[in-house]
Amino acid sequence: MAKSANQPSDRVGRRRFLKGAAIGATALVARPDLAGAEQAQPQRGAGALPSAQTLAAETQPVPADVQALIEDHPGSDFMVDVLKHLGFEYVAANPGSSFRSLHESIVNYGGNKAPELLTCCHEESSMFMACGYAKAEGKPMAVMAHSTVGLQHASIGIYEAFGAQVPVFIILGNTIDAVARRPGVEWSHSAQDAAAMVRDYTKWDDLPISLPHFAESAVRAYKIAMTPPMGPVVLVADSHLQETGMGGHGGGPLRIPKLTLARPPAAAAGAVAELAAFLVAAENPLILGNAARTPEGMRLLVELAETLQAPVSGGSFPSRHPLRQGGGGLIRNADLIVGLDVNDLWGTVNTYLDQQTRSSQLLTKQGAKLVSITSSDLYLKSNYQNFQRYTEVDMAIAADPEATLPSLIEAVKKLVTPERRRIFEERGKRLAAASAQALEQARTAATFGWDASPVSIPRLSAELWNAIKDHDWVNVGGVGGGALWNVEKHYQVIDGGGVAAEGGDLPTAVGAALAHRKHGRLAVSIQKDGDFMYAPGALWTAAHHRIPLLSVMYNNRAYHQEVMHIQRMANRHQRGITNAGIGNSLSDPNIDFAAMARAMGVHGEGPITNPNDLGPAIKRALDVVLRGQPALVDVVTQPR
Ligand SMILES: Cc1ncc(C[n+]2csc(CCOP(=O)(O)OP(=O)(O)O)c2C)c(N)n1
C-alpha cells in the first residue's frame, strides 16, 4: 500500500541514512573482482553480455561492508512508494537498463502490484496503451521509456496524448553523470537534457536530482497532467538517483507531498448568464462537441439539451436520443452555435474550397452567433499546429465545459418562460421526427451491398453489433460502429480527438480494454489493416496480460485513404488513376491477420471473404473473449 504523505514507508523510515556515493565507492573498492570484470567487457554494442567472471562475481555471497547497500533501500524503492502514493494501477514498458533499478524495485519491493508492470513490445505501444487507458479511466497510466532510444519510439504516442489532451505520466530513464556511464551504449543512450526532444508536446517535465525533489516533482507532474486541458508529463528518473541508497539524498526523513488535484475551471457567473440568455432566445441553437469528461458530464449535457430542446451534434451524447442530430444542414440553419471543447471549430463552421487559392466559405447564416467553451484557451504551445485555425467567435469562454454545465443549466432554467417552453417543445418534436427518419435511412443504407464480397462495412458493423448488443459493451477505438450502434453510456465510446497518427488504434484498444476489464465490460474494436501493421505486438501484450478484447479487422488490403489522395492528385495532373495503388496496396502477399494473432497466443478467425461466414466467426471469437482472452476476426472488406 502507498503510504500517506505524513507517513513515509516504515521500511524507508528504518533504513540507515548512509551516503549513497560513499557506499558506491566502498562497494567497488570491496569488490576489485567486479570492477575488473566490468572493464573486461566489450566496450561497444548493444550485444555486450556480462562475462562469466562478472556473473560469478555478482552471484557470490556479498561481503559484509557491501551489505549496507542491500540493507539501505535504493532510491528506486522510494520511487515505487511515490508511484503507489499517486495511485498508479499500471506502468507500461519495454525494459531498459536506464531504469533497471526502478524495474527491479517495482517487481520486488512493490511486489508488482499497483503499479503492475505491463510488458510491451514497442514504446509507441506503451504510450498508446496509456492513452487508451486514460480515455477509459480518466486518469494516467505510467509509462517507463528507456532513455534516448525509448523516448524516440514513444514520441508519437506522447504527441497523441498531447493532441487528445489525455493525462499520461512518462518516467524516462537517463544517466546524467558522465562518469557514471559505462563505456559504449550508455553514452548513446544518455542525453544532457533528455526530455528536450518531446518538450514541445508535453505539458511539463522535470529532472529531479534528489529523492525529495523526485517526490515533489512527481506529485506536481500528476497534478499538471490531470488539470484540464490534460496532457502528458515527463519525469526523468536519473539512473544514479534510482540506484543510490536512500542515504544519498542528503536531507531529513523522506516524505511524499499530498496530492490535491486542481478543480477544473468553470466559467464566471457573468459569462454564464450571458450565454444562458443567448440560448433561451435562440430560435435554432446547436450544441457541438464534447462536454463529458465523466458520466456526469454526459448526464448534464442531456439535461441542458432537454431543457432547451436543442440539437446536439458530435461528442458523447446518447446516439439514439431524439435530440442527437447530424448533417451539414444543422450548421447552416443555426442562429446560435455553442462549441464545447471542439478542437477544430473553424473547420466545423467553414468549408475549405481550394488549397491552391486558399479559399474557404463560412457555412453559418448571416448574423448567427458563435460561442466556444474550452479549456484549450487557457493553454497553448506554439510549435506544433494541432490548435487549428483561429476561429472568430462572438464569445470565448475559457473554461472546462463539464465544470460549467451545472451553473449554465441553472441559469437557463431561470430564464425559460412558459411561452419559450412551448416553442422549445415544438422544436423538440421536429427534431425527434428528423432523428427517427435519419435512423431509418441508416438502416436502409446498411442493406446496400449486404451480400457483397469483399464484405461491406455496414455488414461488418451490423454483424458485430448483433453479437455484442446484449452485453455491457464498449467500443475501445479504431473505427466507429456507425449509426446503428446504440450508444447509451458515457464509457461506451472512446473520444477520438488526437493527432490521427497511424499505428495507435490497436494499442489504444488494448489499454482501454485493460481499464474496462475490472468492470467486466466487453471491449470491442474495429481495426484497420494499415494501422494495425505499425505495431502489432500490442496483441501479444493483450494475450500475455489476459486482456479480453475482440478485434475485428476492417481489412481492405490497402492504405486506402492514401489511395484516394493519389487518385485526387492524378486527376489534378490528368494522368489517370491506374497507378494509385503503388506504394499504397497491402496485398501480394496478403497479410494473414488470423495467423498473426495465433502466433501471439490470440484466438484468430479468418480471413473472411464470404459475408455469411462472418456472424458465426464473430460468435466463436466472442466466446473466447467472454472467457477473458483476446480474439481477432480478420474480415476482408470493401475499401470504404
Ligand atoms: C504515422 C502516420 N504516418 C502516415 C500517416 C498518413 N496516413 C493517413 S491515413 C493512412 C492510411 C490508412 O490506412 P489504413 O489504416 O489501412 O486505413 P484505410 O485508409 O485503408 O481505411 C496513412 C498512411 C498518418 N496518419 N500517420
- Strand order within the widest beta sheet: 2-1-3-4-6-5
Bound molecules: thiamine diphosphate
Provide the residue-averaged pLDDT: 89
Radius of gyration in whole Å, from Cα? 28 Å
Q: What portion of the residues fall into strands of 2 or more residues?
A: 5-15%
The assigned structural class equals alpha/beta
How would you describe the shape? Answer: globular
Query: Uncertain segments of ≥5 residues (pLDDT<50)?
Result: 1-48, 66-70
Number of helices: 25
Portion of residues within helices? 40-55%
**What's the main sheet like?**
6 strands, parallel
Distance between the termini: 50 Å
Q: What's the β-strand tally?
A: 18
What is this structure's SSE topology?
Blueprint: H1 10-14, H2 20-30, H3 32-40, H4 52-59, H5 67-71, H6 75-85, E1 90-93, H7 100-109, E2 116-119, H8 123-137, E3 142-146, H9 147-164, E4 168-174, H10 185-188, E5 204-206, H11 211-226, E6 232-238, H12 239-243, H13 269-281, E7 285-289, H14 295-308, E8 312-313, H15 329-333, E9 336-340, H16 345-349, E10 350-354, E11 359-362, E12 369-373, E13 395-397, H17 401-415, H18 418-447, H19 457-468, E14 473-478, H20 505-517, E15 522-528, H21 529-532, H22 538-544, E16 550-555, H23 560-572, H24 593-599, E17 603-608, H25 614-626, E18 631-636
Parallel strand pairs: 1-2, 1-3, 3-4, 4-6, 5-6, 7-8, 7-9, 9-12, 12-13, 14-15, 15-16, 16-18, 17-18
Antiparallel strand pairs: 10-11
Helix pairs in contact: 3-4, 6-7, 6-11, 8-9, 8-20, 13-17, 14-17, 19-25, 20-22
The protein binds thiamine diphosphate (TPP).
Residues 500-503, 528-531, 556, 558-562 line the site of thiamine diphosphate.
